Amino acid sequence: MGKHEGERTKRRRSEADSSEREKVEECVQKIKHVESFYEKPPPGLIKELEEKPEDCIPDIPGNEMARNFLAHAPSKGLWMPLGKEVKVMQCWRCKQYGHRTGDRECPYFATGNTHLEHFRVAHEDPMYDILKNQKRRQKEMRVEQLKQLLAEATTDSESSEVSSRKRKHKHKKGKKRKKKRKH
Question: Which GO terms of type biological process are on file (predicted)?
Fold first, then answer.
């Protein structure tokens, strides 16, 4: 009986393991189906013609090199089409594209209230507050050090005055004793 029961439990375990594996495989297949379903375009979709960069130049025999250049030009990342740097940003002062407020390219760069401009530049800089706080802390530390030195100097001078008085007093006593001995 022991052999037959052991074999039965082994069969049950192997059947349970195989059923669990099948369930896991079914779940994986469902997930793969959902992922592929959302990645693929719907059936019957009519693709629109995508505009290519070289299509903006007419297809004339003299324009072959320019069209070829644009066809193989990079379209993603940092690049300079036709050797010109492209900055996609707008200036707040002059409302033109290609530079920021405060850049030398701006026509209003040198105009306006220079004091206000220096203030704006200083406060737009994230390091401004950090440097300002650091300078303030250094000044406070220096003042504390000087106060400590001053306090030490006054206590040293007071203690030296007291010690010098004691020496003078002892010196006077010593002179009096010498006079008494001589007489």
Answer: RNA splicing
